[in-house]
Design a protein that fits this description.
The complex is a heterodimer of chains A (92) and B (418). By secondary structure, chain A is mainly β. Chain A has one helix at 35-43; strands at 3-6, 10-13, 18-22, 51-57, 65-71, 77-82. In chain A, the strands form two sheets. A four-stranded antiparallel β-sheet of chain A has the order 3-4-5-6, with no helix packed on it. A two-stranded antiparallel ribbon of chain A has the order 1-2. Chain A is globular. Chain B is α/β, with parallel strands linked by helices and 418 residues long. Chain B has ten helices and 18 strands. Chain B has helices at residues 6-13, 42-55, 89-107, 125-140, 150-156, 184-197, 241-246, 310-323, 372-385, 399-402; strands at 32-38, 60-63, 79-80, 118-122, 146-149, 172-176, 180-181, 201-203, 208-214, 217-223, 226-235, 254-264, 274-277, 282-286, 292-302, 332-343, 349-352, 358-362. In chain B, strands 1, 2, 8, 9, 10, 11, 17 and 18 form an eight-stranded mixed β-sheet that branches. In chain B, strands 5-6-4-13-14-15-12-16 form an eight-stranded mixed β-sheet. In chain B, strands 3-7 form a two-stranded antiparallel sheet. In chain B, helix 3 packs across helix 9 (372-385). The relative contact order of chain B is 0.18. The chains are: A mainly beta (92), B alpha/beta (418). The A-B interface holds A 1-2, 13-15, 18-19, 39-40, 42-49, 52, 54, 72-75 and B 242-243, 251-256, 300-305, 309-311, 344, 400-401, 413, 415-416.
Chain lengths: 92, 418
């Protein structure tokens, strides 16, 4: 069982949460995006082997989305944060 | 190589089975091969075997970072079936099914293919419609499929709880009688022995650390046992396709997840078919050793860990007990995890790439084992001819860009939902 610290509710069991997506993915500007860029956004993933930034949903708790810095090899969670702070600044 | 037969068995019995030759050689890697296959699981070894057998290409190495069949080939729930409904899948999996039917004889190695049938349980009207449609699709393609009423299901699987008071009441089921199970380790070993017979080098404990590409053309691989030059390099590393392709700068329409499976303690024969339920998402069979083999959903978060967490084990066990209350008395003996390439439409990729001489076989999601011989057959053709076989033309990597998806479940580009 992973224990995940929701930035609003504190430490809870993983069963209260669901993984949503790569937190570094950015929807391209739909007014100017070309087909190739749009395809990359919809279909391609980094599938990082190691530490990555993820978006999770506290579906059985406060219902909020938040960010997790997690290792996909060890399942270790290094940090969690609200969407609003600068957790991902400087990250590609 | 000794041909296995009643005579070789008798001959070796005379010397107390002390003198059986090694099943395959373990050669040192040569500096150059025509083709290097990355991944010594079922798909990689089957590809090597059919490259030699069907195309006469024997200057081939299979490089494996661990031991043969130590990845998903040895971690699946051994189910073999061809009950797919989408164009592209239906005939490909049926080709694989036909190869399974003759595989033990062809390989001269008993893969213990047991045609015990696979039964998909339907729990509501919408599933009945969808399953019957899929069954009809199979039948017009000359694939066996039978619709079973609730009573017929109960007769076939006496231990199944068919009352109306369960979590997911059973309404009927789609049976593929020829489907079944095979011994997964034997599949890897049989193909390895078959490929080795043709002189193909199988190199274990040899991890690929880089792929050499020059001017858009593949030149070879870097490994933990030194560089190996090759005209063609083909991946068969499902679970690790994404980060292997990253070595050549390709970003894949894949997300990597962990899928768990588990077995109960062994008991006397009580379940003589494979039972699956899409509503509960669980699949159950009994191994020849007597263990009940279960699998269910992914853990639903990206992982390369080859192990999952307890919530999913509990969920699968609950679903098993809901369908088979009697199994609640059993103890769980072992659980394990395997790494899945989850593709964006739930179907595999067997494809050429924009790099000359670089081929990709991956994206098998939950279901690579059943495809092992068929995948090897068409992948060998693709590699030998630099062009796909008619059965894998729809599994091209560029289908995500062109929109020609093969999405059995209709979930779109949400990898974990397939």
């Amino acid at each position: 069982m992973m224990l995940i610290t929701c930035p609003w509710c504190g430490r809870r069991a993983q069963t209260e949460f669901s993984y949503i997506d790569d937190a570094t993915a950015r929807r391209p500007n739909m007014d100017s995006v070309n087909e190739a860029e749009h395809f990359k956004f919809v279909y391609e993933r980094d599938s990082r082997r190691g530490v990555q930034y993820e978006l999770w949903h506290h579906h059985a708790g406060c219902g909020k989305f938040f960010k997790i810095h997690r290792d996909t090899i060890t399942h270790e969670i290094h940090a969690t944060s609200k969407l609003s702070n600068g957790f991902l600044e400087g990250v590609k | 190589m000794t041909r296995y037969s009643i005579f070789s068995l008798a001959r070796n019995a005379l010397s107390n089975h002390q003198n059986w030759p090694k099943v395959w050689r373990s050669p040192e890697p040569k500096s150059r091969y025509e083709i290097v296959i990355i991944g010594g699981g079922g798909h990689g070894l089957a590809t090597a075997y059919y490259l030699a057998k069907n195309h006469g290409i024997k200057n081939v190495a299979v490089v494996e970072k661990g031991w043969l069949g130590g990845g998903n080939t040895g971690r699946n729930t051994t189910i073999v079936r061809s009950n797919y409904g989408q164009p592209g899948n239906t005939l490909f999996y049926e080709k694989s099914m036909q190869l399974w039917e003759g595989l033990s004889k062809d390989l001269n190695y008993n893969v213990m293919m047991s045609h015990r049938g696979v039964l998909n349980l339907a729990h509501n009207d919408a599933q009945i419609d969808a399953f019957q449609r899929r069954g009809n699709t199979m039948r017009i393609n000359n694939i066996d499929a039978e619709w079973l009423s609730l009573n017929q299901v109960q007769v076939l699987v006496p231990l199944l709880n068919c009352s109306s008071r369960t979590r997911f009441p059973v309404k009927g089921g789609l049976l593929q009688p020829r489907a079944g199970t095979a011994r997964h380790d034997a599949v890897a070993w049989g193909f390895a022995r078959g490929a080795d017979k043709y002189g193909i080098d199988i190199i274990q404990n040899c991890e690929v650390t880089g792929i050499d590409v020059h001017a858009g053309e593949v030149k070879g691989v870097q490994t933990t046992r030194g560089p190996i030059r090759a005209t063609k390099v083909a991946t068969a590393v499902a679970g690790h396709t994404a980060h292997l392709c990253e070595m050549v700068g390709m970003r894949m329409p894949l997300e990597t997840h962990v899928l768990q499976a588990m077995v109960s303690e062994p008991i006397k024969p009580c379940l003589n078919t494979v039972v699956t339920s899409g509503a509960a998402h669980v699949y159950i069979s009994q191994s020849d050793k007597g263990e009940l083999v279960f699998g269910g959903d992914l853990d639903f978060y990206p992982s390369y860990a080859q192990r999952g967490n307890f919530p999913r084990i509990e969920d699968v066990a609950q679903n098993v007990v809901s369908l088979f209350p009697a199994f609640g008395r059993l103890r769980l003996m072992r659980t394990w995890g395997g790494i899945m390439d989850m593709s964006m439409d739930g179907s595999p990729i067997i494809s050429t790439s924009h790099i000359k001489g670089f081929f990709i076989n991956g994206g098998w999601c939950y279901g690579g084992f059943k495809a092992t011989p068929g995948s090897g057959w068409v992948y060998a053709h693709t590699i030998a001819n630099d062009a796909p076989h008619e059965l894998n033309i729809k599994f091209a990597l560029n289908r995500f860009e062109s929109g020609a998806l093969i999405d059995e479940s209709g979930n779109g580009a949400t990898a974990k939902a397939h």
